[in-house]
Amino acid sequence: MQIEPLIQGVVARSSHPYGCRASIKEQIDFVKQAPQIKKGPKRVLIIGASSGFGLAARIALTFGGAEADTIGVSFERGPSDKGVGSAGWYNNIFFKEEAIHHGRTAINIVGDAFSDTVRNQVIEAIETYFEGEVDLVIYSLATGVRPMPNSEEFWRSVIKPIGESVTGASIMLENDQWVESSLEPATEEEAAATIKVMGGDDWESWIDALINSESVAEGCKTIAFSYMGPEVTHPIYLDGTLGRAKVDLHQTSHSLNLKMANFGGSAHATVCKALVTKASVFIPALSPYLLALYRVMKEKGTHERCIEQMQRLFTTKLYDQEKVPVDGERLIRIDDLELDPQVQQEVSAILEQMNADNFKELGDYEGFKDEFMKLNGFNFEGVDYSQDISLKTLKALKP
Ligand code: NAI
After folding, report:
1. What's the rounded Cα separation, in Å, for the pair 266 and 188?
2. Annotated binding site for substrate
3. Atom of ligand 1 nearest to the CA of 146
4. Neighbours of 299 (CB within 10 A)
5. For the chain, where are the E strands, in sequence order?
6. How many Å apart are CA 74 and CA 108, to the nearest integer?
7. Residues 6+ away with beta carbon under 8 Å from 190
8. Residue among 75, 93, 114, 368 to mutate when testing ligand 1 (max atoms within 8 A of CB)
9. Could you identify the atom of ligand 1 that is nearest to the CA of residue 272?
10. Own/partner long-range contacts of 179-188 (Cβ < 8 Å, ≥24 apart)
11. Ligand 1: which of 51, 73, 93, 137 to mutate, most ligand atoms within 8 Å of CB?
């Protein structure tokens, strides 16, 4: 079969395995020529390792100077008679292939990070491959659901404003259409469920499990990712349900920091730049901002993708420094270039003019869509998209 891109709304329903391999290689090439991580961690656990920031962190730590071995947890779909499988599935496979070739250990654990089964698998893998201890734990999950413990029910996160409704546009990647919609405010129950799914609770329970199993090495650090954004995005993000969950995550970072101090280590929430990922294109009313931001930052030469963000995080913030630089709320800020006042002034000027008729001209829609296609293994030069790929070949690839 030939694998074609299939997009439904803002969700990719297909992925190209060899394009995913090209994407991994491109990211590896980038970190190899970037400033190197000098005093990085050697044994790293990444929860949410198969795409976006988690995958970029994994690549940076393995190939960008630290020479780390990694255990990556993710929830991905393999090939079946229903479809070719998700991009993250192939990212896991081809990352591991490259890491092994580079002489590093890379273990993929595919399953629900909220479950005890996966926690136990991870602890076992730490025993087997890391001599029982980890030096860094990266928590990079993005999900809409979390099973309630010992129950058949789920908490479901919602992306909604709090207090007042918000009107904004989403861009349907399926047909390049700008769709205006109004989002009603979340109920208290919805906001509380979003905190359960995307707040700090599960990060803390992972760290507790690792402490209890004596898997935390002396000096071990842990980070989780957050977003704050400029004022134009606050109604849908920071002041909405996701923002509440992120505030909860920030608070968790402080309590975890006390626990990690017992091991001479630390915990930090790290505020990243807005980027096109599987998770972020889902956020209503954020896409116009992303289009304007991409245009301005590319023009200024300051645009970064997940991989640039992660390499810069490890070389200039988390490692190689006497002290981790933080803001007044003890957050690591790697969103500094996004929040540059000049950038934001130009972004606001574009947003004021942007509408359904001109968003492709005013914003960087081409770059936005290209990045989305690349996340799923499409649009890579050098990949022969007309090649015939059999399901049998794909099924033989194991994470
Ligand atoms: P992503 O969708 O690219 O990656 C999410 C990862 O979580 C994938 O590896 C996926 O397999 C894994 N995952 C999801 N549910 C799982 C489950 N139940 N069990 C195991 N693994 C599971 O998302 P992205 O954008 O990289 O987000 C990661 C973190 O970064 C999130 O906390 C997000 O809020 C934050 N962030 C994202 C920004 C953006 O613009 N994309 C900006 C700033 C922060």
Report:
1. 32
2. 227
3. 18
4. 12
5. 7-8, 11-12, 43-47, 69-74, 106-110, 134-139, 145-147, 154-156, 166-172, 177-183, 216-226, 266-271, 332-333
6. 8
7. 158, 160, 241
8. 75
9. 43
10. 180/356, 181/284, 181/285, 183/159, 183/236, 183/284, 183/285, 184/160, 185/160, 185/161, 186/158, 186/160, 186/161, 186/162, 186/240, 186/241
11. 51
Domains delineated in the chain: 7-395 (3.40.50.720)
User: Which positions ≥6 away from 9 have C-beta within 8 Å?
Assistant: 172, 173, 174
Contacts of 292 by beta carbon, 8 Å cutoff, 6+ apart: 346, 347, 350, 351, 354, 362, 363
Query: Nearest to residue 179, comparing CAs of 375, 359, 369, 364?
Result: 359
Q: pTM value?
A: 0.98
**Got the DSSP string for 267-288?**
EEEEEPPP---TTGGGSTTTHH
| Sequential pLDDT tens for the chain (399 residues) | 999 999 999 999 999 999 999 999 999 999 999 999 999 999 999 999 999 999 999 999 999 999 999 999 999 999 998 899 999 999 999 999 999 999 999 999 999 999 999 999 999 999 999 999 999 999 999 999 999 988 999 999 999 999 999 999 999 999 999 999 899 999 999 999 999 999 999 999 999 999 999 999 999 999 999 999 999 999 999 999 999 999 999 999 999 999 999 999 999 999 999 999 888 888 888 999 999 999 999 999 999 999 999 999 999 999 999 999 999 999 999 999 999 999 999 999 999 999 999 999 999 999 999 999 999 999 999 999 999 999 999 999 999
